[in-house]
TrEMBL record:
Transmembrane feature ranges: 39-57, 131-151, 188-208, 220-237, 243-266, 286-305, 372-391, 403-424, 430-449, 458-476
Swiss-Prot/TrEMBL TPR repeat ranges: 499-532, 533-566, 601-634, 703-736
One GO CC annotation: endoplasmic reticulum
EC identifiers of the protein: 2.4.1.109
Protein name per its UniProtKB record: dolichyl-phosphate-mannose--protein mannosyltransferase
Organism, as annotated: Cephalopterus ornatus (Amazonian umbrellabird)
UniProt-listed PANTHER family: PROTEIN O-MANNOSYL-TRANSFERASE TMTC4, PTHR44227
Biological processes per GO annotation: endoplasmic reticulum unfolded protein response
Lineage: Eukaryota, Metazoa, Chordata, Craniata, Vertebrata
GO molecular function terms listed in the Swiss-Prot or TrEMBL record: dolichyl-phosphate-mannose-protein mannosyltransferase activity
């Protein structure tokens, strides 16, 4: 209902609330909660939402951050900005068969701005922006909830009134402190959900502004409807869920602006009631506005479809096992079980996990499975709420319940597996927007309990207790997201059957050099999922380094048998076969890896090492040259070329390669050392000395650097300097090969000179 009183004095907030209470029940009347001025309410929500996640500000890049940020070339200045519009969230071309088709160019653009402003990959700036975004969204929620819970009303000056200040504050606080939001705020890739939510809410508020009566007396503004569609498009360019706001705007228009009784409308449609022709909702332009929303949504989806291409993203069975089940019954049962688990995370967000795939939730394959109870409970509650939303005689109750269910269900639809397969079982980040509906239903339930309760203060204290527990849970969960070690280990108790959890714990331990512990977790990952090729590959690598070559070969052979295009496993298998001196098999494995990954510099490097062992020097040089073409900063390949040319007496060519390498990697001390050796043999002593000293400055504890510089001085005739560096070299490494013999030769020469003197 839109009212305007041109001949009356402006209404105060209290007068407006009183007038509203005369026309329909007011939610705040029954809610025992704090009444704060709008400014203070927003300050409180902002402060509490900040406190929940403040301790994540100095966290590391964790989990998916590596792929989406550190390894994403779209963040770097050398990548043209235009490429962002043709790449997915992870920096891959949308046309690629391996692309997940997650099209979020505006989110990637904010990552790029973060990277450029910070001058590199420093996570603090990324985390701070996420925290600010969540605080901003939480503050906006007060305005959104005031409309959803109190209705849309304007004063005669066109100012929107908050007719449910207590209820909207409570709902906004519930949203701000919900622990399930931790992944979105503390995990940097969660910015996609935060930006999407921001423009989602702005689109809704913009749509509400369309119904502010203007000076010409028009009942709605086409401009603001179009602005709402544009903001919805921006939300979708941040994350796919954003498009659902257009559907929610249509639902809001029907229920709040036009006050349609859905049950009554359905009955009239079924009976082809002629009274529909003169219905008030048609006169208010509802169909015209819905047509604008639908046309805008269809255009946005068509453009996205053209950019993305027609092929759906390719996911594997471990990502979403239920979607690969042959039986429609098994798929339906498990999808509904996933929905019940999402609902439980909203109700009781205690068991949170960064990943719910790979056996974390075993499939339900029979109706005798006790977990069927969860499905029954979910649908019992949903059907009860839907019946109340449709059949209640209280229009206020119908409106709030329908809007609550709409905001709970509609934003979740893209993640529901109903329209297309998704690449996860449960993802806490996708509940960020649906939690709006949960907060509406919780607040309405609290108002009903308050109405019935005799001791309302006890009920208010209980809700305060829930908020306080959630704040502490947010702080605890944020601290777990600060580092990969804490994040991965926190999942072991929640999802002990998840092979990916054990894999990530093992990988984190291996990166820290704790190979023995890493082996334990990799073995458990393979036990839980015998087809987990990445765990096999990493375990095979560690066993290779520990010289347990036969078991490493078995694991890597099994990995490439399960996934024949697994290039990394083929390369590692080649390394093991090379160590076992099965050179022909190793060469074949390397070329198979290159076949499946054309641009594979590390594989060319290892192939070059194989050819060098076989004295196929030209093939070795060609392989290393390919590695440096694909990866110009490949220091090891450059070094091996210089050393091989040096050892075969091609000093001029070795010098040319060394100078080329140092132009590309000017601060690499190992290249300085190799080139200095070549220059010394070419009797370019001054230049060789300068490079040796520069290398020693960069790495002063390398015994070989001091030893070879001593050899240079020895040849050059600077015997005192030679003696000094021989002694430094032997101090750093008493067993350095050749250094002791050279030092003894020098000492004898010095003794002979002293005798002659």
């Amino acid at each position: 209902q839109i009212f305007s009183q041109h001949n009356a004095e402006p209404l105060s907030l209290e007068q407006a609330i009183r007038r509203m209470a005369q026309t329909e029940p007011n939610l705040d009347h029954d809610v025992s909660w704090f009444l704060l001025p709008s400014y203070w309410a927003k300050m409180v929500v902002a402060l509490i939402s900040f406190l929940c996640f403040a301790n994540s500000y100095d966290g590391d890049f964790v989990f998916d951050d590596s792929e989406a940020i550190i390894n994403n070339k779209d963040l770097r200045a050398e990548t043209p900005l235009g490429d962002l519009w043709y790449h997915d969230f992870w920096g891959s071309k949308l046309s690629s068969n391996t692309s997940h088709k997650s099209y979020r160019p505006l989110t990637v653009l904010t990552f790029r701005i973060n990277y450029l402003l910070a001058g590199g990959f420093y996570p603090v700036g990324f985390h701070v922006i996420n925290i600010i975004l969540h605080c901003t969204i939480s503050v906006l929620m007060i305005d959104v909830f005031s409309i959803l819970l109190g209705g849309l009303q304007f004063s005669n000056k066109g100012r929107r009134l908050n007719l449910a200040p207590k209820s909207s504050l409570l709902a906004a606080l519930l949203f701000a402190v919900h622990p399930v939001h931790t992944e979105c705020v503390a995990g940097i890739v969660g910015r996609a959900d935060l930006l999407c939510a921001l423009f989602f809410l702005l689109s809704f508020l913009g749509y509400c502004k369309a119904f502010r009566e203007n000076k010409e007396g028009h009942t709605f503004s086409i401009l603001w409807v179009l602005v709402s569609v544009i903001l919805g498009a921006i939300a979708m360019l941040c994350k796919e869920q954003g498009i659902t706001i257009l559907g929610l705007n249509a639902v809001f228009d029907a229920l709040v602006i036009n006050k349609i009784n859905l049950l009554e409308l359905i009955q009239k449609l079924l009976h082809k009631d002629k009274s529909l022709e003169n219905a008030g909702q048609l006169r208010k332009g509802l169909l015209f506005r819905i047509t604008l929303l639908m046309s805008g949504g269809a255009s946005i989806l068509y453009i996205r479809w053209r950019i993305m291409g027609t092929g759906p993203p390719a996911f594997t069975e471990v990502d979403n096992p239920a979607s690969f089940a042959d039986s429609l019954f098994v798929r339906a049962i498990n999808y509904n079980y996933y929905y019940s688990l999402n609902a439980w995370l909203l109700l009781c967000p205690w068991w949170l996990c960064f990943d719910w795939s790979m056996g974390c939730i075993p499939l339900i394959k029979s109706v005798s499975d006790w977990r069927i109870i969860a499905l029954a409970a979910l649908w019992f509650c949903l059907i009860g709420l839907i019946c109340q939303a449709l059949c209640s005689e209280d229009s206020h109750k119908r409106r709030i319940l329908t809007l609550g269910l709409g905001f709970l269900i509609i934003p979740f639809l893209p993640a529901s597996n109903l329209f297309f397969r998704v690449g996860f079982v449960i993802a806490e980040r996708v509940i960020y927007l649906p939690s709006i509906g949960y907060c509406i239903l919780f607040t309405y339930g609290f108002s009903l309990l308050s109405k019935q309760a005799k001791k309302k203060k006890i009920l208010a204290v209980a809700v305060l207790g829930i908020l306080l527990i959630n704040v502490m849970r947010c702080a605890l969960r944020s601290s777990q997201w600060r580092s990969e070690e804490q994040l991965f280990r926190s999942a072991l108790s929640v999802c002990p059957l998840n092979a990916k959890v054990h894999y990530n714990v093992g990988k984190n331990l291996a990166d820290k050099g704790n190979q023995s512990a890493a082996i334990k977790y990799y073995r458990e990952a393979v036990r839980l999922n015998p087809k987990y090729v990445h765990a096999m590959n990493n375990l095979g690598n560690i066993l290779k380094e520990r010289n347990e070559l036969h078991e490493a070969e078995e694991l890597l052979s099994l990995a490439v048998q399960i996934q024949p295009d697994f290039a990394a496993a083929w390369m590692n298998l080649g390394i093991v076969q090379n160590s076992l001196r099965r050179f022909e098999e190793a060469e074949q494995s390397y070329w198979t890896a290159i076949k499946h990954r054309k641009k594979y510099p590390d594989c060319y490097y290892n192939l070059g090492r194989l050819y060098a062992d076989l004295n196929r020097h030209i093939d070795a040089l060609n392989a290393w040259r390919n590695a440096t073409v694909l990866k110009p900063e490949h220091s090891l390949a450059w070094n091996n070329m210089i050393i091989l040319l040096d050892n075969t007496g091609n000093l001029a060519q070795a010098e040319a390669v060394g100078r080329e390498a140092l132009e590309l990697i000017p601060n690499d001390h190992s290249l300085m050392f190799s080139l200095a050796n070549v220059l010394g043999k070419s009797q370019k002593y001054k230049e060789s000395e300068a490079l040796f000293l520069k290398a020693i400055k960069a790495n002063p504890n390398a015994a070989s650097y001091h030893g070879n510089l001593a050899v240079l001085y020895h040849r050059w005739g600077n015997l005192d300097l030679a003696k000094k560096h021989y002694e430094v070299s032997l101090k750093l490494d008493p067993m350095a090969p050749g250094t002791k013999e050279n030092y003894n030769l020098l000492r004898r020469k010095l003794e002979q000179l002293q005798k002659k003197g």
